[in-house]
Write a structure and sequence with these properties.
Blueprint: H1 2-26, H2 30-42, H3 47-59, E1 90-92, E2 97-99, H4 101-113, H5 117-121, H6 128-142, H7 156-170, H8 180-184, E3 189-191, E4 194-196, E5 214-216, E6 221-223, H9 225-235, H10 246-258, E7 268-270
Parallel strand pairs: 5-7
Antiparallel strand pairs: 1-2, 3-4, 5-6
Helix pairs in contact: 3-6, 4-6, 7-10, 9-10
């Protein structure tokens, strides 16, 4: 009888131990699971295909002027690519405005190759020359992977865009009275199974602004920062902002300045 009691006790302890392990595994956060999912996909990130396409487009003779983009100035001089992504948006003297990566690429496509910038801006994402802008932005961003964000704030327009972006980040409106801060204005928020980064301060390496452009696994698309912000406005039930608008560039300036010191992992991979 005593032997049976010891056996029963041992089995009970074994079951409790197994339950404890199962419980510990179950307590893994959703964000940890998503991180593991991304890590499994990272080695084969389809963004690499867009990088290759972007590099080819940069060197390809195209447009009415039959020219390449190799003399495009993205902020560090004609043809310089490495390090420009982590310093955009910034003020450009030739256009006399603050521009982000995508809008600056369109400026170069117009000036150097003869494309119509207004037509590109009005083309839906993923179509025509817009798809080329996304590929170019993906390649340019990849050339700064591992570098730290350090957006300039010396020019008065750069400072103004930061302040406007800050106001837009906290501006509530639309049918649901949402703002960017509704999702990204405090710690510990989550939507569906994903943690939402706190973007009114530096969220850390490879998070938020430091992760886009990114490949979206859920829809098989490459998303630039312009499209990311556009979709954020859609989710807030706002009208879509225009491509390269001052509003989206101001928001990018605010997020980019807040990300100072964060390491870029773009182009990343998202669910």
């Amino acid at each position: 009888m005593r032997t049976h009691a010891y056996t029963a006790c041992a089995l009970a302890l074994s079951a409790l131990s197994a339950l404890s392990v199962t419980s510990a595994l179950a307590q893994k956060t959703a964000s940890q699971s998503i991180d593991e999912y991304r890590a499994m996909l990272a080695d084969g990130n389809p963004a690499e295909l867009f990088e290759a396409k972007g590099e080819d487009l940069w060197k390809q003779v195209r447009g009415p002027k039959k020219a390449t983009l190799e003399q495009c100035d993205l902020g560090k001089g004609p043809g310089v690519i490495k390090g420009v992504f982590v310093e955009l948006p910034r003020y450009f003297a030739d256009t006399q405005r603050v521009q982000d990566l995508e809008s600056r690429l369109v400026t170069c496509m117009e000036k150097l190759q003869g494309f119509n910038a207004a037509e590109i801006a009005n083309t839906p994402f993923g179509k025509g020359e817009q798809s080329h802008v996304t590929a170019l932005a993906t390649w340019v961003a990849a050339e700064s992977k591992g570098l730290k964000f350090n957006l300039p704030q010396a020019h008065v327009q750069e400072k103004t865009f930061f302040e406007v972006g800050k106001r837009l980040f906290f501006q509530r409106g639309g049918t649901h009275d949402f703002s960017c801060a509704s999702c990204h204005g405090e710690e510990g928020k989550r939507i569906r199974l994903q943690d939402l980064p706190y973007l009114s301060k530096n969220p850390g390496d490879g998070v938020g602004f430091a992760a886009w452009p990114a490949y979206r696994v859920s829809n098989g698309q490459m998303w630039s920062m312009q499209l990311r912000l556009n979709d954020c406005y859609r989710q807030q039930r706002f009208p879509y902002p225009g491509f390269g608008s001052d509003a989206t560039i101001a928001l990018s300036t605010y997020l980019g300045v807040n990300a100072k010191g964060a390491v870029s992992v773009a182009p990343a991979i998202k669910r």
